[in-house]
Automatic annotation (TrEMBL), chain B:
UniProt xrefs under SUPFAM superfamilies: Periplasmic binding protein-like II
Protein name (database record): ABC transporter substrate-binding protein
GO biological process: peptide transport
Alphabetical UniProt keywords: Signal, Transport
Compartments, as annotated in UniProt: Periplasm
Species this protein is from: Roseibium aggregatum
GO CC terms in record: ATP-binding cassette (ABC) transporter complex; outer membrane-bounded periplasmic space
Length: 350, 516
């Protein structure tokens, strides 16, 4: 079995890469057709909506200007002509310009992506260790008071809306205590409150999941076999339980990350930070379709990319899929290397 | 516990980051932080392009040749005098001693150069909309201080159109100073939808500004802006939440500013066909609207003023003082009864042509007061026996729905006189065949008055025409004015020299100051 794994892994690296890229292309094409169709079919005069956004107000643009916008952006052309125009730009690396400001989409996107990444990463850096800590508390004595408190904390965290929490944090730490800025970006201090707001949500969702993954892994039958072989509890936890629990956990963390890239709108707006989410909402409101289409494509791309990354990570972590590492054998000259594999083979055969 | 742990962590870290970036860059400098709901849409927003001028004009960076007073009357700005030479020619005499932010003097040549950029496709200042408003054909320099502006057709609104913030006079920018205007504040930097920063310009023609720096911060959520004021992160919030403003007013607290603006909330009606082709019914709708109740309920009584017509009272040059739009449900019922629109089956809804009368109303997202206004209207009209179906739509799609007769009323909010001239609003909305006349409304008398108003160049002569136009709209009701939006701002108690302009065109002036 090991031999078969090895050969498939060798050819597999290229194979997986090609398969992934192919899947990416298919997904992106599908999304582009869908998004563009929805945009094309959406009700209302697009030129008027653009004029409305560009000149900041209803009825601010004379009809000639609206007509000029319609002609300039080929808004009266049939679907295929408009779609081709758009796709051919993308293939040349030209993502278009904002219809409202005239600034290239890419230049608008980059600073917003920076804000979003900074926020998402800090939120994960605060939220994940907390979730890990709380799930360990749960695992320590399942069903005990501590476990229940951890579960309760997670449930409350999940129930608190970010809108309310964000405002409360501003009220306490900016308005009353005056420790932190109430809005904006620029310094690390500006990141703390919005990151904390999002971290509460991450902690809440990940604690419940991670707790159940850990509990499930710690009740696996192969652990008994390891204990009988005299493997210490510490090693059982770090090398076996945790490793098993990480496989599904990484999927969920990846999904959270993908969600944070687009879904932090409320926090972005409350803290007046800008970011991908609020950019998307603003662009939808002003019918700034080059930005909307780009962001939807980005979103599709990031989901596919993150999912591929998750699978790659899982392949490394999953003992069933990983190859027996020679270095591990060297470290552990006694029989345990094959022992680690055997229970997984059993699970695999089940 | 998660929250507690997270908060303790932040608490411990907080002192290290303390409010960096929120204190003035240099000690002793007077910097004012202002919160506003929208901001620049690019890092170098050329004031002449699109609607960028609105922000730079408010920020005191760019200036126009002619300005609008707080009574919405024409006032000299960069031009000290102006004269109509013929229906298509205007002479403007420039003010002496005006300097650009790079220290060079403003000359007739530089004004001409600035306006010529409007028509240059590809130039950042390219602005077809403004050219259309001005109907500008050419600019010629007569001498160092005198310019002749020629229009392609007679345009009685020309001087008013020159007050449009994008009609600004600018010099070509450089890398160091990308926007070179003439105002009391010079451009420093802009961050898209976040920040617009300026510094005081000592050589300003109108005297030295009192502030060294002004930072406009974009805070989209009004409650957050209010908290930022409480946290001392900003000195002035331009758009304060109305409910909180009313509460402060009640308690007699806070430094409050408010003024009526020219933004009108109104219903555009389908008059060509459908039930609202009936004038008596339109009049009954207007009489049934308790405008004060709408303002009290949607804007806490402080964010709006019930409309007496299409223009607000502070638009002194044009406002018709004789008009009113009373709330009189009894009269509304009488009118309906007389028109034969009565409730014969006793279900509380009047019938028209044997069927229950149902009016379909729609509005759009984007302005907080729109939806509640529509909801209260539904309830108010029910009380006079009119069935109403309401829904939310998209701005442009709603217009199409009125046009096709799918809906009968479309609640909108327009600036009724963005440049102070009274022609634009009626000419665009109610003139026969006008672009936004989706009502299908036609009134030859009104059309003739609008024509007269446009061909006349003396505002004193024009005035009676527009007074009559306002009266016809109130009587005929192709659109039903509801209320004029009042802007409410709150300062930290130290703000001086701040006034809310009816067209919200000016904010940072030489006089704007923070008391120590």
């Amino acid at each position: 079995m090991n031999g078969r794994n090895r050969t498939s892994a060798l050819t597999g690296i290229h194979g997986i890469l090609i398969k992934r890229l192919g899947a990416l292309a298919v997904v992106l094409f599908g999304v582009s057709v869908l998004t563009f169709s929805l945009y094309y079919l959406s009700p209302g005069d697009k030129a008027l909506a653009i004029a409305h956004a560009r000149y900041m107000g209803e009825g601010n643009a004379p009809p000639e200007v609206v007509q000029a916008i319609r002609e300039k952006y080929a808004l009266n052309e049939p679907f295929l002509t408009q779609f081709k125009l758009w796709v051919s730009g993308y293939l040349k690396g030209d993502f278009g310009q904002s219809l409202v400001s005239g600034v290239p989409v890419w230049e608008i996107f980059l600073p917003n992506l920076r804000e979003t990444l900074a926020l998402a990463c800090s939120a994960l850096l605060i939220g994940l260790p907390l979730a890990f800590f709380l799930s360990l508390v749960s695992l320590w004595r399942p069903g005990s008071l501590y476990d229940r408190i951890a579960v309760a904390v997670a449930s409350i965290g999940a129930a608190v809306p970010s809108y309310w929490l964000g405002l409360m944090l501003i009220l306490v730490f900016a308005a009353w205590l005056n420790w932190l800025p109430s809005f904006g970006t620029g310094t690390p201090a500006h990141l703390i409150l919005p990151a904390a707001t999002l971290a509460v949500w991450i902690t809440a969702s990940q604690t419940r999941l991670f707790r159940s993954f850990l509990l499930e892994a710690s009740s696996s039958p192969f652990l008994e076999a390891l204990r009988l072989r005299g493997v210490g509890e510490k090693e059982i936890f770090w090398r076996h339980i945790l490793r098993h629990a990480m496989v599904p956990a990484i999927t969920m963390i990846g999904l959270d990350l993908a969600y944070l890239l687009e879904g932090a709108v409320i926090v972005e707006v409350i803290f007046a930070r800008g970011g991908i989410g609020s950019l998307l909402v603003g662009s939808v409101m002003s019918r700034d379709y080059p930005i909307v289409l780009f962001l939807v494509m980005f979103s599709a791309f990031s989901y596919v990319a993150i999912n591929s990354l998750i699978e790659a990570l899982q392949d490394c972590l999953d003992p069933r899929k990983s190859l027996p590492a020679p270095s591990l054998r060297a470290q552990r000259p006694i029989t345990t290397a094959s022992a680690t594999d055997s229970p997984d083979n059993t699970t695999g055969d089940r | 516990m998660t929250l507690a742990v997270a908060l303790t962590g932040i608490g411990a870290a907080a002192p290290f980051f303390l409010t960096a970036g929120f204190t003035s860059a240099l000690a002793g400098e007077k910097t004012m932080h202002i919160a506003m709901p929208f901001g620049p849409n690019s890092p170098v927003p050329d004031p002449r392009a699109r609607q960028n001028g609105w922000l730079s004009n408010r920020a005191g960076v760019s200036e126009t040749l002619i300005g609008l007073s707080y009574d919405m009357e024409l006032i000299p700005r960069l031009a000290q005098a102006y004269e109509n030479m013929s229906p298509t020619e205007w002479k403007l005499i420039l003010r002496d001693g005006v300097k650009f932010h790079d220290g060079t003097p403003m000359t007739a040549e530089s004004v001409k150069a600035s306006f010529e950029k409007l028509g240059e496709e590809g130039h950042p200042a390219h602005n077809p909309r403004l050219l259309k408003l001005l109907a500008l054909e050419s600019v010629t320099v007569e001498d160092a201080h005198t310019l002749i502006f020629k229009t392609s057709k007679p345009n009685s609104a020309f001087l008013w159109a020159l007050t449009e913030p994008s009609a600004a006079v600018l010099k070509e920018g450089t890398d160091d100073l990308p926007i070179i205007g003439t105002g009391p504040f010079a451009f420093v930097s802009a961050e898209t939808e976040k920040k617009y920063e300026t510094r005081g310009f000592q050589d300003y023609w109108g005297g030295e500004p009192k502030l060294d720096r002004v930072v406009f911060n974009v805070i989209p959520d009004a409650s957050v802006a209010a908290l930022a004021l409480q946290a001392n992160d900003v000195d002035l919030v331009t758009n304060y939440p109305e409910q909180d403003f009313a509460a402060l007013k009640e308690k007699g607290e806070g430094q409050l500013f408010s003024n009526e603006t020219a933004r009108l909330f109104f219903y555009q009606l389908r008059t060509k066909d459908g039930p609202l082709a009936n004038k008596a019914l339109r009049q009954a709708l207007s009489l049934g609207l308790d405008r004060q109740l709408i303002v009290d309920a949607t804007l806490a009584g402080v964010g709006g003023t019930p409309a007496n017509g299409i223009f607000p009272a502070n638009m002194a040059s044009w406002y018709n003082t004789d008009l009113s739009l009373p709330f009189d449900p009894e009269k509304a019922k009488t009118l309906l009864d007389e028109a034969g629109i009565t409730d014969t089956d006793g279900n509380g809804i009047r019938e028209i042509d044997g069927k229950d009368l149902t009016v379909r109303i729609r509005t759009y997202e984007g302005r907080a007061a729109l939806r509640p206004t529509m909801e209260i209207t539904q309830e108010l009209l029910k009380r006079i026996g009119i069935g109403v179906e309401i829904s939310m739509g998209e701005y442009a799609a709603n217009n199409d729905a009125v046009k096709s007769g799918e809906i009968q009323m479309n609640l909108q909010a327009w600036g009724t006189a963005p440049q102070g001239d009274p022609d634009y609003f009626p000419s665009t909305l109610v003139k026969s065949g006008a672009s936004y006349n989706i009502s299908g409304y036609e009134n030859p008398e009104l059309d003739a008055l609008l024509e007269k108003g446009r061909s006349e160049f003396d505002d004193e002569v024009r005035r009676p025409f527009y007074e009559e136009i306002q009266a016809i709209i109130n009587e005929d009701l192709p659109l039903i004015p509801v209320f004029h939006k009042t802007q409410v701002s709150v300062g930290n108690g130290k703000v001086t020299g701040y006034r809310i302009h009816p067209a919200e065109t000016y904010l940072a002036t030489v006089d704007l100051d923070l008391e120590q």
